[in-house]
Amino acid sequence: MSAISASTTAQKSLTAFDKLGMILALIILAGLFLQPFSQFAANRIVEATPKMIWSALPGWQGVCLMATIIAAIVVMVLRSPVNLRLGVSVAMMAVLALMVGRSGYFLMPDDNPYARVSAGGGFWIMLFGFSIAMADAIVRKQLAPMKRMAFLAIGMAAIGLLLWSGAWDQLSILKEYANRSDAFWREGRTHLLLTFGSVGAATVTGIPIGILCYRVPKVRATILNILNVLQTIPSIAMFGLLIAPLAWIGRNIPGAAELGIAGIGFAPAIVALYAYSLLPVVSNTVAGLDSVPPDARDAARGMGMTVRQLLLQIELPLAFPVILTGIRIVLVQNIGLAVIAGLIGGGGYGTFVFQGIAQTATDLVLLGAMPVVGMAFAAAIILDALVEISQTHGKKGASA
């Protein structure tokens, strides 16, 4: 009996710990003790000197931050209430963001305007760990779609407030932004145009193609196989393949050059993104129409609906959540793929990414990469919420 009771006690002690929390604790501890919190360089070119928390901040501030991080780790490791886990993870992300900005002011010398202070690997690793903890807590709370979008809006407002407050003004990423502020917003508009232009064109053409594939099974396999082949071509190769034909069109077709069609630049970038967007839209349209219950079709035909009425009033509304899921996939995909357009002069935030790689300037790379990550994250949350809302409305309409 003593062995059985000892085994039961051991099992209970194990269930007192959160498995994901233990993994995240190891990640955060690695960021805390194995990676620098900040990095200092005398100028933009020389190699940076790593600074751990205890040397990146004034003594007492570093000690308080370390103690706060360890206390947050304890909360995550234990099976604590979801609201507490969410509050702690959000608070720690805010504290880390404020303190890395504080390290910029602490490390920046008064007599060297060329010095650079940047966030180190430890900061990014810990921020990643607490962001995963936040996402896990949100999933566990099973927030309604509108609440998730409200949470996103609050987060975006908090980031805007952080940047507006000047807390990060001494970090090198904002110094890179200060030198390129006009270009940053110009390339941002181009990135959005590449992304939403390609997704919009794919939606307008892909849904009718999907309807055709659904209505005419004989062409379904052929069309989907062609789109599958396009999807397997690497993005850089796709851009390269488009250079020669678009250059010929720009030279030989009147008015094409005036429209911006050329071998490099915006035109091949948006055409390539459009080609990558078609398969998810078409395949999800077919899948959505296939998922429409036969009873719904029979009832519509029994009411005397024409084929057109059946499609517009019954089939497409019921298939809409699946079609929207395909659009979500395409949008998030193209936000990231548009970065590659910077290689061929297509513009977008990829311009900063590749400039930073060429100059070995990490913060210039981050200046281009971080907005892309933020846009993809926001797009995923918003469209996931819209998919869930459309599914709820679809179920209500079907039951009615």
Automatic annotation (TrEMBL):
TM region positions: 20-38, 58-78, 90-108, 114-139, 151-171, 191-214, 226-249, 255-276, 318-344, 364-387
PROSITE patterns recorded: ABC_TM1
Superkingdom, taxonomy of origin: Bacteria
GO cellular component: plasma membrane
Entry membrane topology: Multi-pass membrane protein
InterPro entries, per database record: ABC_transp_perm/SBD, MetI-like, MetI-like_sf
One of the GO biological process terms: transmembrane transport
Keywords: Membrane, Transmembrane, Transmembrane helix, Transport
Subcellular location field: Cell membrane
Residue ranges annotated for the ABC transmembrane type-1 domain, each copy included: 188-383
PANTHER family (UniProt xref): GLYCINE BETAINE UPTAKE SYSTEM PERMEASE PROTEIN YEHY, GLYCINE BETAINE/L-PROLINE TRANSPORT SYSTEM PERMEASE PROTEIN PROW
Protein's recorded name: Osmoprotectant transport system permease protein
Organism of this sequence: Martelella mediterranea
Lineage: Bacteria, Pseudomonadati, Pseudomonadota, Alphaproteobacteria, Hyphomicrobiales
